[in-house]
Design brief:
Elements lengths: L1 H28 E11 L5 E11 L5 E8 L1 H4 L2 E10 L6 E10 L9 E11 L4 E10 L4 E2 L3 E2 L6 E7 L7 E10 L5 E4 L5 E4 L2 E10 L6 E7 L5 E13 L3 E12 L3 E2 L5 H6 L12 E5 L4 E6 L8 E5 L4 E5 L10 E11 L4 E3 L5 E6 L8 E10 L5 E6 L5 E7 L8 E11 L6 E7 L7 H22 L7
Parallel strand pairs: 1-11, 9-18, 16-26
Antiparallel strand pairs: 1-2, 2-7, 3-6, 4-5, 4-7, 5-6, 8-10, 10-15, 11-14, 12-15, 13-14, 16-17, 17-23, 19-22, 20-23, 21-22, 24-25, 25-30, 26-29, 27-30, 28-29
Length: about 475
């Protein structure tokens, strides 16, 4: 038996060694002729646009391109999207590519990787252009960490002037866009240029794989740091003609903490000078044709809200009871109804499915934890959810009025949600229309038995004497 284990162990080690060699050789077969990166610091959500011109200088065809991130950035990475471009200028077309996390056995310094799968393998000598968008959250560090009501908010942004990549980069340039022209300091490398709200690092020539040159930008950013610590959205489907949505928010201003006292007089008399980093308005983009909209907190209804609707969208501008400074929190509830026929459809196989929007309706906000509960009608069976990105799923049961066996609830959970996640998802289920008669028959039976009991009571003589 031991003699048979030795060849198997040798074969396993050979396969592992071959995989390591192939992973190393694949990085040597790819050359990035030009890389241009644009980092947008306009809001508290950091957006990075990366353009790569890739060439296969090896002898074998390559079917995937790797993106590398240092562990400090990978922890805050919320979204990655890649497109392959063909053509030039007005005739340019974009093809979405599959991006998924991957691991390499010889990753230096705990580098995290994402794999971009090409539609067609890149043959030897061929080139292709990739457009990549990735988004970071909680990557702007307020400094100083506490400010008074009359001070502006300053933040640190830490990155590298050189693009971290497992491939050799022939030429690369990095552009950083700041919210305003007020920049306290920034790391200067040769060459570095600054004009207005834009800083340019590079171009840098012939950088080997995994090159890294840390930089720090200290700039002003008074945009609202709206972070929803927890959002629970309940979507309740009723086949009688409506879908009811209820959203519970725990909102916090994640910028520099407020110190000192708050002066309402100064805040209202000098709006352009006092509390410039605070916010008192939020915009929620709701579906079109909403009705029965309400906005309240733990105290009660908040009347300071404005709803604008048309056939394409509905904008709800809400105002909390008090302006939010750094570190301040607010909890509130938004509820509304939408027509059933706008979001519930029937698939060719006879199943019904809900087509609704994932993500948070608040503009330019980050959600640390999002929970979506889709409450299906009683009697629904075989539920399944289709989402374009990884989420945690499980089922629950909810009991409402006149329910007998309870309603199936499809629960979707995701952390680190950004506006790019506001895409549609589907929840499929089977439903027998006979269950729609359950509640009316139950009510009819109850009233019928009640009247029978009343008639019986009136005709029964309960007296002792004749």
């Amino acid at each position: 038996m031991g003699v048979l284990l030795i060849p198997r162990l040798t074969l396993t080690l050979t396969i592992i060694s071959l995989f390591i060699v192939l992973s190393r050789s694949s990085s040597q077969e790819i050359l990035i002729n030009n890389a241009e990166r644009r980092i947008d610091l306009s809001t508290h959500i950091v957006k990075v646009f990366l353009t790569l011109k890739v060439e296969n200088i090896g002898t074998n065809a390559v079917s995937e391109i790797l993106l590398a991130f240092p562990p400090t950035q990978a922890d805050h990475l919320a979204f990655v999207e890649a497109l392959a471009t063909t053509g030039k200028r007005k005739k340019k077309t974009y093809v979405p590519l599959v991006v998924k996390p991957t691991e390499l056995p010889d990753a230096p310094n705990e580098t995290k990787y994402f794999s971009i799968s090409l539609v067609n393998p890149l043959n030897s000598g061929d080139t292709t252009t990739l457009e990549v968008l990735y988004v970071f959250t909680h990557s702007l560090e307020p400094f100083p960490m506490e400010i008074s009501q009359s001070e502006s908010q300053l933040v640190y942004y830490r990155d590298s002037a050189l693009i971290l990549s497992p491939y050799h980069i022939k030429q690369q340039t990095t552009f950083i866009k700041t919210p305003t022209t007020k920049v306290e300091s920034f790391t200067r490398l040769d060459p570095t240029n600054r004009a207005g709200t834009e800083m340019k690092y590079g171009p840098y020539e012939d950088q080997p794989p995994y090159s890294y040159s840390p930089i720090i930008v200290h700039c002003e950013n008074n945009n609202p740091f709206a972070v929803v610590e927890e959002l629970v959205r309940e979507v309740e489907i009723s086949h009688w003609g409506s879908i009811q949505i209820t959203e519970h928010y725990k909102l916090v201003h994640a910028g520099a903490r407020h110190k000192g006292i708050f002066s309402r007089v100064e805040y209202q008399s000098k709006p352009s000078f006092s509390g410039v980093s605070s916010f008192k308005h939020l915009l929620a983009r709701l579906p079109p044709r909403v009705h029965s909209v309400y906005y309240r907190d733990e105290i009660g209804n908040i009347s300071s809200s404005h709803l604008r609707t048309d056939s394409q969208k509905s904008d709800l501008e809400i105002e909390p009871r008090y302006p939010l400074f750094g570190g301040w929190k607010a909890t509130f509830i938004i509820g509304y109804g939408v027509p059933l026929q706008d979001f519930l459809f029937e698939s060719p196989d006879g199943r019904r499915y809900l087509n609704f929007t994932f993500g948070c309706p608040l503009a330019e906000s980050v959600v640390d934890k999002l929970t979506i509960k889709v409450v299906l009608p009683e009697g629904s069976k075989d539920p399944s959810a289709v989402v374009t990105f990884p989420v945690e799923q499980h089922l629950e049961t909810k009991y409402s009025y006149l329910d007998v066996v309870g309603r199936t609830v499809v629960v979707l959970e995701k952390k680190n949600v950004v506006p790019m996640h506001n895409t549609v998802f589907q929840v499929y289920y089977t439903f027998n229309p006979i269950f729609m008669l359950a509640e009316p028959l139950m009510l009819t039976s109850v009233f019928f038995l009640f009247f029978v009991a009343c008639v019986a009571y009136l005709h029964i003589d309960l007296s002792i004497r004749k």
